[in-house]
Amino acid sequence: MPTNSTSRPEQLVALLAWLPVMIGLAVLYVPSLYDLLTGIWASDEQMHGPIVLGISVWLLYRNWGAMQLAAQGQKTSAWGWPIFVIGLLLYALGRSQDILMFEIGSVIWLLVGIALLNLGSKALKAQWFALFFMLFMVPLPGAVVDAVTMPMKMAVSFVAENILYWVGYPISRTGVTLQIGQYMLLVADACAGLHTLLTLEALGLLYLNLVRRDSAVRNIGLAILIVPISFTANVIRVMSLTLITYHWGDAAGQGFLHGFAGMVLFISALLLIIGFDTVLQGFEAYRRRAKGVNA
């Protein structure tokens, strides 16, 4: 039976060695996290932020042993210094000027710099996905979000309207406003915006990282399909809210069932990802059998 070369007590000792670094990061970012949790992360559009942060911390801990093993016998990298300094400058600029993208994004630069200075590039490679995943919690500029969100909302509204009209519902659309029966629904940013797309992208990439398929075709294919899967899940959510409002009234559409529709969004996205992964698995198995027959 395989055993880990690093025991649990040794891992705890290794973690304690990083305690000064953790304290330093806490001094910098606890105030920032408090501002986020009481600010934009409390909104529907940005509620994925703390979830991404929690998963990122778990991924860092999950790969901690692999990082320590990769660092054994390796030289540290002086490239960590300029990266670390850039991170500090971004934090100072973002914190002082209230630029959240710089303030929160700086933590990735700092972690990369610290890893290079203390462990080296191979150890950093062991944590690449956790650091990459943190990008999904970095708030984007409002101008970028608005520029991308409106076309997405228009597309989602168009598809939802046509599907419901095709199955016989009395629905019409003006821009991003749907009217079904006596009810009018505005497709909000939280229902079909850029942040929702990024959240579903993060979900798909996390799935890819956790299942760790060996097939490059399967990984690339599923990574490409995450975008249309995210769009489809958004359409399903808008259709769900529209039907809830039509059948049970505006109070139901804006109450508990509105939150339930959010759960439908993520469940449908996850099911679609698993479904497409299964299809790609079947295609890969068929291709291998065909290659074996030809050989």
Automatic annotation (TrEMBL):
It is a multi-pass membrane protein. It comes from the Bacteria. Pfam families: Exosortase_EpsH (PF09721). One of its GO terms (biological process) is proteolysis. The chain crosses the membrane at residues 12-34, 46-64, 76-93, 99-119, 126-144, 183-208, 220-244, 256-280. One of its GO terms (molecular function) is peptidase activity. Its main location: membrane. It is found in: Cell membrane. Keywords: Cell membrane, Hydrolase, Membrane, Protease, Transmembrane, Transmembrane helix. One of its GO terms (cellular component) is plasma membrane. This is Exosortase B.
